[in-house]
Amino acid sequence: MEITFKAINDPTRREILVFLIGGAQNAGEIAKQFSMSKPSISHHLDLLKQGNLILAEKKGQYIIYSLNRSGFELVHAWFQGFAQYFEFPKPKIRL
């Protein structure tokens, strides 16, 4: 779980995750959304993969990246362990 929290610690990686809510994309499409080099984006994608937050599937000449539900379920379950100690308001915005 440590690598997962390291992965979501970076604002660029969090933005990539939000971008992927819209659907699976290849690295080139992801890189277009950010003003950084493709190697830098590839590094961020690799850390998100290591953190089990995204999946990478080879389709032809491209690698398609998508959100990994099981990775988010683990993070959610970890945070839910604290819910018994706090009363949280209902969220007004859904992703």
Oligomer: single chain
| Run of helices and strands | HHEHHEEH
In total, how many beta strands?
A: 3
What's the mean pLDDT score? 90
Instruction: Determine the fraction of residues in helical runs and give it as a percent range.
Output: 40-55%
How many domains comprise the coordinates? 1
Please report the first level of CATH classification, the CATH class.
Mainly Alpha
Radius of gyration: 15 Å
For the biggest β-sheet, the strand order reads 1-3-2
Report what the structure shows.
With 95 residues, the protein is an alpha+beta fold. The chain has one domain (2-81): Arc Repressor Mutant, subunit A (Orthogonal Bundle). It is built from five helices and three strands; from the N terminus they run ααβααββα. A three-stranded antiparallel β-sheet has the order 1-3-2. Strand 2 and strand 3 (62-67) form a beta hairpin. Helix 1 (2-9) packs antiparallel against helix 4 (38-50). The longest helix is centred in the middle third of the chain and has 13 residues, at 38-50. It is elongated. It starts with a helix and ends in a 15-residue tail after the last helix. 17% of the residues are buried. The model has no long low-confidence stretch (mean pLDDT 90).
